[in-house]
């Protein structure tokens, strides 16, 4: 390929990903984006300039060789593209669907300076899906067994990534998952229309093929404590996420018809209430729903409510659209599907009827003031602007914090003000020797790929830690 053809390819517009029309998708949970065809992937990959000093790689928390895998697609060498992805990414089919590439790798693409960046996320999804569709999924060859055993608590993106990295290094890994299905937020939090459960299951099956052992219905802190795990394992990684929901603390939040987004989405996703009666879990039936918040979880809850039969869904957010933390694609899809956005609106009370059931929310209109600590303009109440929105269901989607069980049952484990585990940023080491942590249990609610990046760093530190000591079994025999 000549330099002129490189420039011509780069100048072409970004290849859009085909999507199911809004009218076809609001009545079911089928995935919305359709993915690239082979021809579309070739065309998009051909836009990459193959920079010698790629800025995009620095924006990736797991340091994927982006020019390498994109260039392989452009050459038609799909096997090489997949192999390059898997060198550093344990869950490529998942990351290609849910990671905010537009704020991480794609925003640093040099093409973004004058036009549209390469669609790195779409190409990552395409490569991972291609391998699965060929029926020839290949697993990295693990190193020779080290005789060391590591316990991983939690099977979300951080736990799965850490487990995969450690198995590659030759360690024996057991993952302890509190729920009846593995996957963490990938399974219970993200709806089917954004991340099909079959994709999550396929990635977990791949880890099992590599040698990762997963025990479900295993609540660490109840069944075993971290200290008890340390008696059996050479190290412990805590990747339990942030699954305890936050509420606004306004009057009426205890009324019948108020559900945290966590509970609402768990019923629909993990317990598959949308497949009722086959699933055995009846869905929450609503006519008019108010979702409070402006992040991805708020969009997920609003779009799920619509698919579960709500006649109207209102999303109340106290800032403007520009300040919404949700991905642009999720906001766009919600608008397409008919979600009503009430912006610069802050619910201050949930209203109930004589039977203690939700009948509406009382709200204040807001104006934007000076920026706050997040860099976004602070919402300021407008005096005398109260009004009501009639509804029968209210879903606060205001973020989550770590479940307190681990910290309450692990003496000497340093935690921060909000209950997050304190660690070394470089290694994930906690205040307890042999105990490491990463992901949302450390940072609070963040992205899948950020959790995976932290878990990769922790896995490297765990490897160094356990290899500097004799295996646990040998230590026990020396002590006896």
Description:
With 480 residues, the chain is an alpha/beta fold. It folds into three domains: 3-134, Orthogonal Bundle (Fumarate Reductase Iron-sulfur Protein, Chain B, domain 2); 149-243 and 401-479, FAD/NAD(P)-binding domain; 247-398, 3-Layer(bba) Sandwich (FAD/NAD(P)-binding domain). The chain has 19 helices and 15 strands. The chain has helices at 3-11, 22-25, 38-45, 55-58, 66-75, 78-88, 92-98, 120-134, 157-168, 185-188, 197-210, 226-232, 261-269, 296-307, 328-336, 405-408, 440-443, 448-467, 472-479, and strands at 149-153, 172-176, 213-215, 235-238, 244-245, 288-292, 312-317, 340-343, 345-352, 358-371, 377-381, 387-390, 393-396, 400-401, 435-437. The strands form four sheets. A five-stranded parallel sheet has the order 3-2-1-4-15, sandwiched between helices. The chain has a four-stranded parallel sheet with strand order 8-7-6-13, covered by helices on one side. A hairpin with a 5-residue loop joins strand 10 and strand 11. The longest helix is centred in the last third of the chain and has 20 residues, at 448-467. The radius of gyration is 23 Å and the shape is globular. It starts with a helix and ends with a helix. The model is unreliable at 1-5 and 476-480 (pLDDT under 50).
The value of Rg in angstroms is: 23 Å
CATH class of the largest domain, named: Alpha Beta
Kindly report the average pLDDT value: 93
Strand tally is 15
Apparent shape: globular
Distance between the termini: 68 Å
Q: Helicity range of the residues?
A: 25-40%
Total tally of structural domains: 3
**Major β-sheet strand ordering:** 3-2-1-4-15
pLDDT below 50 for ≥5 consecutive residues: which ranges?
A: 1-5, 476-480
CATH structural fold name of the largest domain: FAD/NAD(P)-binding domain
Largest sheet: 5 strands, parallel
Helix segment count? Answer: 19
Please identify which CATH superfamily of the largest domain we are dealing with.
FAD/NAD(P)-binding domain
